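stage 2 :: seqdesign
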């Protein structure tokens, strides 16, 4: 009797444990957006020098999704912006937490990397105030600079969009899935006959041996419907640089992605876009035998195809109102790599007496070398926040890098979640973070150039990936909802379909 009692209790406890582990909570979702279209005449960031907006193509937005279960709430934001600086993220988080109670550390603010967006970067206001007058002039007058007026506008928009999404929280039917779009994005780095790697070696270049890195065609989707069957909002995750400038101010290809989803579903749908590990992946196919499409057509093609794939996923997924919502994060201090002293000296000499022979690229990177040298005096380490935000069976794993695609694949492989969506350029910006191979003796190219923008030590990428995977291990993956299991075979099939051919 005693034995039996213990046995029953043991079963009872193990049942309880299993139940706790798989516990799903009634959850809610909410979506909202705000306009952050820059003014004509504002800077258009994306290069190392200054460029200004002259025309408008379409609106840039802050796009926010908020999820809440019984205990926790998280926010996932996608901005139509080149980058989102760390100081802006911290200011927004603080205000959001005060206004609507979402914990600061549970808010993910990411940039799409739109190269046709407003001045959120590169140089931040006051960033080089500690440096010499000469360096200040290079930073503030010769470089792409963030506009304090625009940054304030973006801050207000981020806070308002997030709090509105929070206010709109409702028991929606949420689905999770992914599809494949493998015809619009290409790795832009190649192994060359020289023994090194080049970025964009040029179509038809006979010295190309093959791509130096992968692509990731997964189109990640989280989508939420009302009980009336109308799609309320969605998150789409995809790996491709937003360098498809259709001409003028624009959300870039994300505009066409949104148009396709809204065109099929409803024009009121909020589409939150998060960029995967896209550091070395763009729309340019260096191996194509054909001339490139026109900018407008190209932008439609990339955005349209990714949006259409997202729609296909949405039509296939099952939904639930019960899922777990939680997040983890960690701020790493990662060392920057200093430029060699002789290179700093040569850069100063070139800039102080620019010879007519020095080309624009040489001058741009001389400026970058001098600026990095000054930056290191103030910030020898970069704050690199790694974050994992769980929405049921999906985990978004973010970092502030223009992160190489291989690392995104590594994170997907290392995560035990049914769906893992890496997010780059989130919660700050630390420039390109290439693979150790790309920074090795047989590497090279554009992204590995040392600049005030890209300068973390070669192991940074691996450290970030490992930390991202470690954060996912602290979470309990949810299950992708499916239709009810089919009952066991009843012994009868379709009565019309069970006869031999009638040819006699
Ligand atoms: Zn980039």
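stage 2 :: out
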């Amino acid at each position: 009797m005693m034995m039996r009692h213990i046995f029953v209790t043991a079963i009872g406890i193990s049942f309880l444990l299993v139940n706790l582990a798989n516990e799903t909570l009634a959850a809610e979702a909410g979506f909202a957006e705000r306009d952050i279209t820059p003014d004509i005449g504002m800077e258009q960031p994306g290069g190392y020098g200054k460029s200004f907006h002259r025309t408008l193509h379409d609106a840039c937005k802050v796009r926010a999704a908020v999820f809440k279960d019984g205990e926790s709430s998280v926010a996932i934001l996608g901005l139509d912006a080149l980058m989102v600086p760390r100081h802006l993220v911290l200011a927004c988080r603080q205000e959001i937490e005060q206004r609507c109670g979402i914990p600061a550390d549970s808010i993910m603010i990411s940039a799409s990397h739109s190269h046709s967006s407003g001045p959120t970067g590169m140089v931040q206001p006051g960033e080089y105030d500690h440096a010499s007058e000469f360096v200040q002039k290079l930073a503030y007058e010769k470089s792409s600079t963030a506009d304090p007026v625009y940054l304030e506008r973006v801050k207000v928009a981020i806070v308002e969009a997030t709090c509105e999404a929070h206010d709109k929280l409702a028991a929606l039917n949420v689905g999770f899935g992914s599809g494949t779009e493998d015809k619009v994005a290409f790795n832009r780095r190649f192994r060359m006959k020289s023994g090194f790697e080049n970025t964009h070696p040029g179509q038809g270049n006979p010295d190309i041996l093959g791509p130096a890195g992968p692509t990731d065609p997964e189109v990640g989707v989280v989508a939420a419907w009302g009980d009336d069957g109308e799609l309320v909002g969605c998150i789409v995750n995809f790996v491709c640089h937003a360098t498809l400038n259709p001409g003028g101010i624009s959300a870039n290809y994300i505009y066409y992605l949104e148009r396709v989803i809204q065109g099929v579903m409803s024009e009121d749908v909020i589409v939150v876009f998060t960029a995967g590990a896209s550091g070395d992946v763009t729309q340019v196919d260096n191996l194509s035998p054909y001339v490139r499409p026109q900018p407008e057509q190209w932008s439609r093609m990339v955005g349209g195809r990714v949006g259409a794939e997202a729609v296909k996923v949405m039509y296939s997924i099952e939904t639930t109102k019960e899922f777990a919502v939680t997040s983890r994060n960690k701020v790493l201090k990662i060392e920057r790599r200093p430029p060699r002293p002789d290179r700093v000296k040569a850069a100063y000499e070139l800039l102080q007496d620019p010879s007519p022979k020095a080309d624009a690229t040489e001058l741009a990177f001389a400026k970058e070398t001098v600026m990095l040298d000054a930056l290191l005096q103030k910030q020898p380490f970069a704050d690199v926040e790694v974050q994992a935000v769980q929405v049921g069976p999906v985990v978004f794993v973010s970092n502030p890098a223009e992160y190489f695609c291989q690392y995104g694949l590594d994170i997907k492989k290392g995560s035990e979640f049914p769906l893992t969506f890496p997010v780059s350029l989130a919660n700050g910006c630390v420039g390109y973070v290439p693979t150790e191979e790309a920074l090795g003796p047989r590497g090279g190219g554009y992204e590995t150039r040392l600049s005030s923008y890209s300068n973390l030590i070669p192991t940074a990428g691996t450290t970030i990936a490992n930390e991202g995977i470690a954060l996912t291990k602290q979470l309990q993956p949810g299950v992708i909802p499916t239709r009810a299991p089919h009952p066991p075979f009843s012994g009868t099939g379709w009565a019309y379909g069970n006869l031999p051919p009638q040819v006699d």
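stage 3 :: structure notes
- Residues 1-22 have pLDDT under 50 and may be disordered.
- The radius of gyration is 25 Å.
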